[in-house]
Amino acid sequence: MNALTLLIVEHDELEALFKQVERSDLADRKALFVKIRAIIESHSHIEEMVLYRYMLESGEEDLRAVVKEGIEKHRKIKGFMQEISSLRSDAEEFEEKLKMFMEFTRHHVEKEETVIFTKITKHFEPAVLYALGAKMDAAKRNFVRAADDFL
Description:
Elements: H1 3-23, H2 26-58, H3 61-85, H4 92-123, H5 126-150
Helix pairs in contact: 1-2, 1-4, 1-5, 2-3, 2-5, 3-4
């Protein structure tokens, strides 16, 4: 699968979970957040370690600049997740942080798909994106396997 298609599929899965959060009651939100966090952790890992790394090594300056910005956004998203994980789901702050986290993540996904992915598509041949997709798929399987072994 093309690397960008793989990421878009995961973005769509994430958006579906965000909508579930918005429709759910407070008791279900913590469990949904746990699912969201697992998806984002594996997603950001493969994106940074495979796709972004390749773009930083092989991309032109304008692409490297937006990739660096994407990495910074991932850092902030991970910070949000760490903060939310430390809160009780019945705490008022949990709701506020979760809402801010979802808004920030949605904005990042939109920019990634409209700006970063567009630049990547312009700079790299489809064969490169398919090869990166295969590497990302393998990296995701390894990441998930390692997480399962840890638990």
